[in-house]
Amino acid sequence: MKLLELNNVSIDYKTIEGNIRAVDKICLSIEDGEILGLVGESGCGKTTLIKSIIGLLPQNGTVAEGEIFFENENLLKLTKDEMRKKRWKDISMITQSAMNSLNPVYKISWQIVEAIQAHKEISKEDAYKRAEELFELVGLEKGRLNDYPHQYSGGMKQRAIIAMALALNPKIIIADEPTTALDVIVQSQILERINKLLENYQGSMILVTHDMSVIAQTCTKVAVMYGGKIVEYGEVNQVFKEPNHPYTMGLKNAFPSLVGEKNDLISIPGIPPNLLNEIKGCRFKDRCPFSIEKCSQENPKKTNIEEGFFYCHREEEREKLRVLASKQETWLQENIKE
Amino acid sequence: MRLLKYITKRILVMLLTLFVLVTILFFLFRVVPGDPVSMFIDSGLDRESQELLLKHYGLDKPIGQQYIIYIKNLLKGDFGNSFQYGKSALEVIAERFCNTMILMVTSLIIAFFIGITAGAALAWKRNTKFDMIGTIIALIVRCAPIFWTGMILLSIFAFKLKILPLGGMNTPGMRFDNLLEKYLNFDFLKHLILPAVTAALYSAATPLLVMRTSMLEVIKEDYIELARAKGLKEKRIMRKHAMRTALLPVVTIFAVQAGFAIGGSVLIETVFRWPGMGREIVLAVSFRDYPLAQTAFLLIGVMTALFNLIADILYAYLDPRVALD
Q1: Could you give the count of Cα atoms lying within 13 Å of B11 in the half-sphere of its Cβ?
Q2: Of B229, B240, B241, which is closest to A54 when you measure between CB atoms?
Q3: Which regions span the lipid bilayer (chain A) (predicted)?
Q4: Record: contact A150-B320, CB cut-off 8 A
Q5: Which among A15, B217, B265, B325 counts the fewest CB atoms within 10 Å?
Q6: Is residue A14 located within the same domain as residue A149?
Q7: Which residue segment(s) compose the domain that A174 sits in?
Q8: Is A101 on the interface with B (CB under 8 A)?
């Protein structure tokens, strides 16, 4: 069953310089129990997209078109209070900077109990017991519940936030770069913990990251975003083994592979497009080593493959491009137009 | 335990501050040109009588010795006798000091209540007309001279509407058996309203603007976004999360404001004929009435130090990070 379905969603930001379309006509769906990875460079619209799902876009951001269905109910049609009741109970969130997401003047236990009591008629003692259970789940000592956030390390804060996100057994958890602010060792501990929790957790999850290796470890599906659009979507192993979009091929090169032969890392030259101007044709064309005349004139069409899709004008030649893309010289600056 | 240690430390620091204050006050008045002799000892007296008077007040001794005697007496609770009145300086100033404190504390409470709530409300509705107009009004009230605001309020509520008294602290002719009776009655309250509101309007703008700025910072914080994600009601987010944290800088300025308010009470007391100690201090200084002036300034100092202590304790209570170091 489809738990969450985004239908043609576009999101605009009003700025002094003009409208910015941060997310452009995105269609995406998540099944019950599915773990979706959302990957892309900074500024590609990942965070904007997920904030629209939980209804927390900044003041100058609006969903300009499209529908967001959650259990066949359009979230955009809900009143503010109806949406508020869904938050955390049905859709919870692990924020981008867990370091600063805990209020410095309240004890951790107070903050967890508050989240539980906001949605459930439950006594303080029972809510506290639930907090103890959650702490055990994320591997924190129960005794630390009555500490203040400044007495926690970064990794502990992140665990506390994860515990809080699980508090009401939400149907979907949105994790916005849950490990970015941590050092590598703590990062892998947290990821391990998330993976372990997911084994017993019935709900779905969207994991936003710009780290391909995180996705490979954790997710079942992956959506690759570029310039406000999803350029490729599919089953994780499939996408990593045989990427179909040149951008995904480039991303794959830019991260070390844990299995298989050791390759030099290759980066994609150039910068993401400026979304302030309307872009004609494919958004990746300026950085794509394979772009052709057609790419600047028409928007690429959707190509459906089993369990996924991608958008590219040269979809017929993807086998050939994949071979070329794994070579260092393909991605040199001079091979790219402009 | 940690909190107790913190508070003890603060109190020790406060006592040290007061000792330094006493010392500075003692020497400061003696450095000021002019001496008590010419001010209150009649020059018509013969030399012998003049010296007798000097000896009586202990002014014939060297200044260092005078200082030691003063400190010794102070520790015994003896503030010295006023040169002008001939009776205990503390007795002269005590009642007037109480009158001033009641007025100032009332006005500070009103000021901070208005400042904190209005500041938070303006920040919550940032960039709206409400915010703009509110901020402008706050600035205008802040810039208006305090005696002018007082006179405007007097002309409206006392002259035109005749609902509040013109000045003073009690309706003339009233008699009271003790202090409590004097303060705990409706007549006193009616006299208190205008001067307290005038002083409050003047001091409200600073906490208001500080609170507004602090709130604007806080509502950008990630924990406010998480509070929203948690599905809390907006009112709860504003009160429990935003205002609570934004209060911290306001507490800091509370101590400073309290000092200013007590020091600046002279103008208010003059406009509203409030029998406070403002006028007494001016007289004491110009007559070189050392004991009286020292006592008055010391009392102000003690109150300011106490307000600082309260602010420190409040701060430690509000922000768990403070009591740690």
Answers
A1: 6
A2: B229
A3: none
A4: yes
A5: B325
A6: yes
A7: 2-241
A8: yes
Same domain, A29 and A113: yes
- Domains of chain B, each with CATH number or no CATH: 89-324 (1.10.3720.10)
CB contact under 8 A, B232 and A86: no
Written as six digits, the tokens of A143 are 């005794």
Cα–Cα distance between A246 and A242 in angstroms, integer? 11
Q: Which residue of A has its CA nearest to B315?
A: A105
Judged against a pLDDT cut of 80, whether residue A239 lies above it is answered with: yes
* Token digits of residue B143: 């810039």
Q: What CATH number should be reported for the domain holding residue A39?
A: 3.40.50.300
A271 and A324 share one domain:
yes
Residues in chain B: 325
Residue B242 Cα, gap to closest chain A Cα (Å): 9
Domain total of chain A: 2
Q: Which of A105, A107, A146, A150 to mutate to test the interface with B (most CBs of B within 10 A)?
A: A105
Q: Is A145 in the same domain as A288? A: no
| Residues of B in Cβ contact (< 8 Å) with A164 | 230
Q: What is the pLDDT of residue B323?
A: 65
Give the pLDDT confidence of A161-211 residue by residue, as tens digits.
999 999 999 999 999 888 877 788 888 888 888 888 888 888 899 999 888
Kindly list the distances between the CA atom of residue B40 and the CA atoms of B33, B59, B89, in Å, as whole numbers in the listed order: 15, 13, 16
> Are the beta carbons of B229 and A148 separated by less than 8 Å?
no
The interface predicted TM-score of the complex, written ipTM, equals: 0.86
Average pLDDT value for residue range A232-250: 91
A102 to B221: CB separation less than 8 angstroms, yes or no: no
Q: pTM for the whole thing? A: 0.81
Contacts of A238 (CB under 8 A, 6+ apart): A307, A308
Say if residue A260's pLDDT is above 70.
Answer: no
Better pLDDT: B184 or A263: B184
